[in-house]
Amino acid sequence: MSHPSGSHPSGMSYVEIGVSDAERSLDFYRGLLGLRPAEAPPEPPAPDVHWLTAEGALVKLVVRDPGAVPEGPLGGWVGDDLQRGMRHFGLKVGDVYRQAERLRSADVPFTVEPVRAVGDVNLAFFTDPDGALLEIIDGHLTYHEVTTPELADRERRLAENRSPDADPVFDHVAVTSGDLDATLAYYRDELGYPVIGRLVHDQDPRGFVIDYLQAGGAVLEVFTYTAAETVPAPDPARDRLGLRAIGLAAETGRAVDPHGVPLRRVSNGSGSASGSGAGER
């Protein structure tokens, strides 16, 4: 079942990111990346929580408890995509190279410089002030396998109409799974997120494959490896910096997904950025 308008009632509502300094992180996400304060967050106000909109979904910044016992800078998260769980948060932009120059002028550290990548898109990876991994991407993916043609075609049309000067919009959250069947059984079969398509990185000796699921106005990228063993996700109970959880406008049925991602239930049924043109990937 597809939802080409990006309006799936149980879609991805937000990504939760732990930060150490609210002012510094708001300067980064609002001042540098151009995200805006959310007008109607899906949860009641709470101390040290800041909501931003990026069109297709929201970003929830949570100031980490300063009294929490540190367990490494990102609470067990490591920069190796063989680790299961959340890997990065992605924003669609009008021009990756232009955005990268702006970030570089602000001394933002890049982990992957702008490059033409598998799928015929431009992308780059960088980190926020606390080390959370972010991606910017432009264009539209040329999938090796297309499962839902109308969703792939919609991506193409939106990309062709996006100005090089367009503000960033919420594009995706990437996760690594150790069991694709279990992941699809939950997100596709139980929550109803249709598979858009697949990319196969045939030059990667680990057997790297990405499946793309439409989760409301955003996309869930599922990484699997056919020739390498994955390792467990960080402890979901840690009050950590960096990528922490996904908020879903659905009865999730569980607190952690099949690959170790903490899930937050959005109680008021708001599955997207209110008043923000959700779904315009």
Layout of SSEs?
Layout: E1 12-19, H1 22-32, E2 36-37, E3 49-53, E4 58-63, E5 85-92, H2 96-105, E6 110-117, E7 121-127, E8 133-138, E9 145-146, H3 149-160, E10 169-176, H4 180-190, E11 195-201, E12 208-215, E13 218-225, E14 242-248, E15 263-265
Parallel strand pairs: 1-4, 5-8, 10-13, 14-15
Antiparallel strand pairs: 1-14, 2-3, 3-4, 5-10, 6-7, 7-8, 9-11, 11-12, 12-13
InterPro entries: Glyas_Bleomycin-R_OHBP_Dase, Glyas_Fos-R_dOase_dom, MMCE/EMCE_epimerase, VOC_core
Protein name: VOC domain-containing protein
Domain VOC: 11-139, 169-281
Identify the CATH architecture: Roll
Low-confidence parts: 1-8, 269-279
CATH superfamily (homologous) name: 2,3-Dihydroxybiphenyl 1,2-Dioxygenase, domain 1
The portion of residues forming beta strands comes to 25-35%
What is the number of helices? 4
* CATH level-3 fold name: 2,3-Dihydroxybiphenyl 1,2-Dioxygenase, domain 1
> What structural category do the secondary elements indicate?
alpha+beta
Q: What is the CATH class?
A: Alpha Beta
Tell me, rounded to a whole number, the average pLDDT.
89
Q: List SSEs in N-to-C order.
A: EHEEEEHEEEEHEHEEEEE
Number of domains: 1
Instruction: Kindly report the spatial arrangement of strands forming the biggest sheet.
Output: 6-7-8-5-10-13-12-11-9
